[in-house]
Write a structure and sequence with these properties.
Radius of gyration: 34 Å
Structural class: mainly alpha
Oligomer: single chain
Largest sheet: none
Order of helices and strands: H
Shape: rod-shaped
Strand content: under 5%
Helix content: over 70%
Number of strands: 0
């Protein structure tokens, strides 16, 4: 093979390796994007669940205070 053809073949092979590498990187980036999106969805779900727990906690706290006040009304202290 003459030197010019050899260089062109070498350049073509290098270009093909670069394209293959770019494709691999794009596939990995897409996988990472999907994983990040799944994590974001999970965190959002956890936030919603936490908000629900917090709301229930506050409701229960109000109920406990109401019962406490009712009990104090049954047994007033004379001080």
């Amino acid at each position: 093979m003459d030197p010019d053809t050899s260089k062109k073949v070498s350049d073509l092979l290098s270009l093909m390796e670069g394209i293959s590498s770019d494709i691999d990187i794009k596939a990995e980036l897409e996988d990472l994007y999907i994983k990040i999106k799944n994590i974001e969805d999970s965190v959002e779900n956890l936030n919603e669940r936490f908000d629900g727990f917090e709301k229930k906690y506050l409701e229960k706290q109000q109920q406990v205070r109401a019962i406490e006040n009712d009990l104090r009304g049954l047994y007033p202290t004379d001080k």
